[in-house]
Amino acid sequence: DITERKLAEERLHHLAYYNELTSLPNRTLFTRLVDQALMVAQRNELSGCVLFIDLNRFKLVNDTLGRRIGDELLRQVATRFRAALREEDVVAHLSGDEFAIGLFDVRQHFEATTVAQKLQAALDASFLIDGHDVRVGASVGISVYPQDGFDADTLLGKADIAMARAKEGHANPDHSVAFYSFDMNKGMQERMRIESGLRHALGHGELMLVYQPKFEIGTDRIVGAEALVRWVHPERGVVPPSEFIPLAETTGLIVQVGEWVLEQACAQAAVWQRAGMRPFRLAVNVSAREFTESLPNRVAETLARYALEPDWLELEITESTLMHDIDRVIGIMDRINALGVALSLDDFGTGYSSLSYLKRFPIHTLKIDRSFTTGIPNDASDCAIASTIISIGRQLGHRVIAEGVETPDQLAFLRDSGCDEVQGYLYAQPLPAARFEQGLRENWLLVG
Asked: Can you list the pairs that 156-165 forms with residues at least 24 positions away whose Cβ atoms lie under 8 Å?
C-alpha cells in the first residue's frame, strides 16, 4: 500500500533528522542547516553564532523523580526555547540535556549574549510536572563564525568547550555564558558589567541630564535645547553615552532609560515654566524600541503630571525608526502632534528614508547629523549633503538644524546655505540645569 509506505518513509525521515522526544531537529539536521546558513553568511559577509546549551540539575531530576518526569521536562524546555527565539533561528535537541542554537542574522556577535540570557530567563519560572515543582537552569557556550570556524561541526565543538568553561568559572552556573574566544569573553564580561551597572544606576540616582542649547542662526537667540543623559558612576566617574547607549539598545534597557529621560526633562521644564520663563522646545530622544502605540499616552500622562504646556516639549526620532510599517508610524506621530508636542527627525541623511515618505511624516524639524557637519567646509560631499538637506527642509516647510557645529567656518557655510538653527561646542557644550538656566538669564549671546 503506497500510503503506508509513504507514512513509513516519513517516519524514517523524522527519526533520522528529528529528536523523537522534543520533535526538534537533531544533531544531523542541525549540522546540515547550519552548514547551509554558513554558505549564505559567507556570500553576504555576515557573521553567525552557534550556542551550545547544557541544562543544570537535569540529571538530578531524572535520578530522583524518574525518567518520565525528565522526558516531560525536556519537552517543556524545548517549547520555552522555541518561544524565546525568532522564526529564523535554528534550535536543536542534540541529546539528553544538551541543546544547540544557530543564529545567523546577527549584526554583532555580542547580540548572541542577549539571546543566551533570554534563553536562560526562559527557564527562570519553575516547571510544574505531575504535581512536582521542577527547576533547571542552563550554561551556554558560544562560538562565532568566521573567527572560530567555518563549518557546523567545528563551531559546535568549540561552543561545547566554551560551555564547559562557562559552567566551571561562574558563581551562578544558571546565568553563565562564555565565548570560545578569549578576547570576546573579555568584551562580554565588560558589557555585562556595564549592563548590571546601568540597571543599578537607573534605580540609584546615578543618571543625570545635561542640556545643550540650540541657537537660531542670524539672531543668535536660544530657541531650544536637547536633553542628554549622562551616567555618573561612583567609581568610574562620567561614563560616556557611546559606552552605554548602544548596549542599552541591544538589551532593551533603553526603554527604561528613555522613560527616565522623558520624566526628568518634563520635571525640569515644569520648574522653568513655573519660574515664568518664556517657553522653548526641550528635545528628548526617543529610540525605535520606545516608538510604540503606547508612546502618545505616556507623553500625555507625563505632561499632565507636571502641568507642563506641550510647547515646552519636542521628541527627536531617528530615521531608522520610521522605516518599519510606515502607516503605523504616521498614526503614532499624528497622535503626538495632536498633543501639541513637536517632532524632529534626528540623524537625517544617515538612514534610508525616501523623499516620498518624508513629505508624509508630520515633522517640524530636520536635523543634519554631526557626521556631515564635521567635514564642512572642506569636504565637498559633506557640503553637498548638508546643502541638499537644507534645501529639502525648506521645500517641505521644515526648520533645519545642524548638530556638532564647532568652528566659525562651519557656521558661515550653514548660514550661507540657509540653515535655521545650530547646536554644538562653538556656542555651548551640554550643561547641567543650573548652568544652562544661568546662561538663559544672561541672554546667551556668545558668538558675535
From this structure: 156/27, 156/30, 156/31, 156/34, 156/50, 156/52, 156/100, 158/50, 159/50, 159/51, 159/52, 159/100, 160/52, 162/52, 163/52, 163/53, 163/54, 163/139, 165/141
Full DSSP string of 292-357: STTHHHHHHHHHHHTT--GGGEEEEEEGGGGGS-HHHHHHHHHHHHHTT-EEEEEEETSS---HHH
**Could you tell me the CA-to-CA distances from 314 to 112, 286, 353 in Å, in that order?**
35, 10, 21
Residue type, 131: G
In the chain, what are the domain boundaries?
2-180, 197-441
- State residue 66 phi and psi, 5-degree precision: 100, 160
Which top CATH class is 2-180?
alpha beta
**Complete DSSP assignment for 23-44:** -SB-HHHHHHHHHHHHHHHHHT
Calculate what percentage of the chain has a pLDDT beyond 70: 94
Other Cβ atoms less than 10 A from the Cβ of 316: the count is 19
* Overall fold of domain 197-441: TIM Barrel (3.20.20)
For 26-67, write each residue's pLDDT tens digit.
999 999 999 999 998 888 888 899 999 999 999 989 888 999
Domains 2-180 and 197-441 share a fold: no
Round to whole Å and give the CA distance between 354 and 361. 11
SS3 183: helix
**pLDDT band for position 157 (cuts 50, 70, 90):** very high
CA distance 193 to 415: 45
